[in-house]
Amino acid sequence: xxxxxxxxxxxxxxxxxxxxxxxxxxxxxxxxxxxxxxxxxxxxxxxxxxxxxxxxxxxxxxxxxxxxxxxxxxxxxxxxxxxxxxxxxxxxxxxxxxxxxxxxxxxxxxxxxxxxxxxxxxxxxxxxxxxxxxxxxxxxxxxxxxxxxxxxxxxxxxxxxxxxxxxxxxxxxxxxxxxxxxxxxxxxxxxxxxxxxxxxxxxxxxxxxxxxxxxxxxxxxxxxxxxxxxxxxxxxxxxxxxxxxxxxxxxxxx
Length: 254
Description:
The chain is an alpha+beta fold. The protein has helices spanning 17-28, 39-42, 123-126, 129-143, 173-200, 206-226, 230-237, 239-250, and strands at residues 33-34, 43-48, 55-65, 69-78, 83-91, 99-106, 110-118, 165-170.
């Protein structure tokens, strides 16, 4: 199996390399076990664009689990026009803890940035006041420097918390500084707090576990049906591979 540490995704030229290095190091400290995926989903290299301007693209899928994480994976994409880090933690349903979601996407003309504790139940059932206050405070600190993109569309609003970091940045040197500075700081703070909450949580009753499972499945099924990355992935890797990746790896409910 390929090691992400030996890939382009650990090199400084890839925009999100420091983020990946941090999350891999943190999660390996929790007795995490690497998932065994079909090799075509672990690493894929392809070409896209017209014959006159063909470009290379690489994809890497780093995936682990442990006694509190049902599935965590980082999907990394590197190309001249697209640079993506999509990271998701799906906790074991015996703990009433939200999902942890990261979507950092560089498109030809801008960066789309989302970081959040993503609820699988209503906010009232899954977040106590202390946790809400902490993540809202961290969000506010981040958005003092990183512009806030505004309210989420109503169709997806239920899948985000009041602490969501959400920004659209133009591709320029100022944005690069915001990504490497305050966004990276917020990313480490969010991940640290999330792991603290997850590994201090107590087991919940079976009826609540059923609700959590339904909530997680609802989120994953929504992403399967309406994942905004589908057009980009199809353009880069083709329809067949994209549908297998989305349905069987990225948002599998099994």
